[in-house]
């Protein structure tokens, strides 16, 4: 056998195994139902873990590690905070489904609403799953890539997420931490 023939045969064998393994990883249970989400957690502004969403964004993002829950059905629920350079404060209580690359927002705190409601969460009336790739904000995708997900599975524990975020976060330039 020539080198080219052996190389081509190896590629075919590897791609066959890789595609069958990849299909198994993406196989989903048609009867799967999301476990009921608990109410939004109380935000803890101490100990926030910053993460980078975009180097061109004026928002400083941070994860509240006390609000992270890794659920048995492969979901990661969390609270994040975003603060603009002008001081506008927003928070989101969301869930990521690592196996599907989707995110859902359960509740929000927006500055005007927060002032009027004493920083209370405003629950989203009918939360929907959306692709992290198609979402208007890429913060969930950034979180998934920086530690919430390992491939298409949820991280093993909160410490793993926090450690990974601390290792991968780019230092904020001209941004105040939330």
Q: What's the layout of helices and strands?
A:
Elements: H1 3-26, E1 49-51, E2 60-70, E3 75-83, E4 89-97, E5 102-110, H2 111-117, E6 122-123, E7 130-131, H3 139-148, E8 149-150, E9 153-154, H4 158-168
Antiparallel strand pairs: 1-2, 2-3, 3-4, 4-5, 5-6, 5-7, 8-9
Helix pairs in contact: 3-4
Summarize the structure in words.
- The protein is an alpha+beta fold and 178 residues long.
- It has a domain at 49-168: Lipocalin.
- Helices cover 29% and strands 28% of the residues.
- The protein has 4 helices and 9 strands.
- Strands 1, 2, 3, 4, 5, 6 and 7 form a 7-stranded antiparallel sheet that branches.
- The protein is globular, with a radius of gyration of 19 Å.
- Residues 3-27 and 171-176 have low confidence and may be disordered.
Primary descriptors:
Lipocalin; globular; alpha+beta; single chain; disordered C terminus; disordered N terminus; 178 residues; 9 strands; 7-stranded antiparallel sheet; two-stranded antiparallel ribbon; 4 helices
Q: Give the beta-strand count.
A: 9
**Kindly, what is the distance between the CA atoms of the first and last residues, rounded to a whole number of angstroms?**
62 Å
Averaged pLDDT:
79
Largest sheet features: 7 strands, antiparallel
> Could you state the order of secondary-structure elements as H and E?
HEEEEEHEEHEEH
Overall, the morphology is globular
* Low-confidence sequence ranges: 3-27, 171-176
CATH topology of the domain at 49-168: Lipocalin
CATH architectural type of the domain at 49-168: Beta Barrel
The total count of helices amounts to 4
Approximately what portion of the residues adopt beta-strand conformation?
Answer: 25-35%
